[in-house]
Amino acid sequence: MSIFTPKRLASSESFGEKLRQARRFKNLRIEDISKKINISAKYLNALEEENFENLPSGLYRKNFLKEYANYLGLDRTELTKELEVSLVFNESNNPFSQKIVKKSKFLVFPKIIRNSLIALSVLICFLYLFLYFQKTISAPDLTIIQPEKNLLIKETSIEIKGQTEKEAEVKINGELVLNNNNGIFSQTINLKKGINTVVIKAKKKYSQESSVTRQILVE
C-alpha cells in the first residue's frame, strides 16, 4: 500500500502568492500593513514567502495569516486550509523540516544548574549568617565542677571551679573572675554560718547570660 502524500498543483497559486499578489494589486507596502495590523513585517514577509522557519508555531501562525488575509480582503478560511496543506507538504518532503533545537536551548539545562548553584550558595550564606548570629547571641555553656548542689560543710570558705566558653566573662556573686584560655575558671569565696547562696554567671559580649546557683550550708 502506498502512503498518500499531499501534492501542490503546479497550476494553482499558493497562499503566499495570493497574499503577495493581493498586496501588490492594492499597491501596499508590507511595512505600512505591519503598522496597521500590529504584526511584524518579518512575519508578513515570511507568510508571503512561505518561510515556515521564520514563523511562530501553532495558533500564532494561523492568526497572523487570518489578520493579513482580512486586511487584504481575501478569504481567510481558504488561506488557512492552504497553509495547513503547505505545512504537511513541507514536512513530508523535507527530512530536515523538524525544528532544529537552537544552541540557546542546549544551554537551558546548564543555566538551570548555574542558577541552582547560585541559589544554593546564597542559601548557605544566609544559613551561615543565621547560625553565626545565633551563636553570637546565645548564652554560653556553663558547667560547675565544684561545689555540688546543696552542699553541707564546716569550712567558711570554698573554691568555686567551673568551665565556660573561653571568650565568656564569668562573675561569682557579681564579682568578675578570670578564666584561662580554655574557659576554665577558679575562685575561692568566703562563706558565713548558715545558708549561703552562690550565683555563677557567664556572658559573652553580645550574648544572653548563663546562670547557675549553688546553695551551701555552713554548720
**Amount of beta strand:** 15-25%
CATH superfamily of the largest domain: lambda repressor-like DNA-binding domains
Largest sheet: 5 strands, mixed
Shape: rod-shaped
What fold name stands as the CATH topology of the largest domain?
434 Repressor (Amino-terminal Domain)
What is the element string, with H for helices and E for strands? HHHHHHHEEEEEEEE
Mean pLDDT: 82
Secondary structure blueprint with pairings:
Layout: H1 15-25, H2 30-37, H3 41-49, H4 59-72, H5 76-93, H6 103-106, H7 108-137, E1 142-146, E2 151-153, E3 157-164, E4 169-172, E5 175-177, E6 184-190, E7 194-203, E8 209-218
Parallel strand pairs: 2-8
Antiparallel strand pairs: 1-3, 3-6, 4-5, 4-7, 7-8
Helix pairs in contact: 4-5
Description:
With 219 residues, the protein is an alpha+beta fold. It folds into 3 domains: 15-93, lambda repressor-like DNA-binding domains (434 Repressor (Amino-terminal Domain), Orthogonal Bundle), CATH 1.10.260; 103-137; 142-218, Sandwich (Immunoglobulin-like). It contains 7 helices and 8 strands, in the order αααααααββββββββ. The strands form 2 sheets. It has a 5-stranded mixed beta sheet, with no helix packed on it. A 3-stranded antiparallel beta sheet has the order 1-3-6, with no helix packed on it. Helix 4 (59-72) packs across helix 5 (76-93). It starts with 14 loop residues before the first helix and ends with a strand.
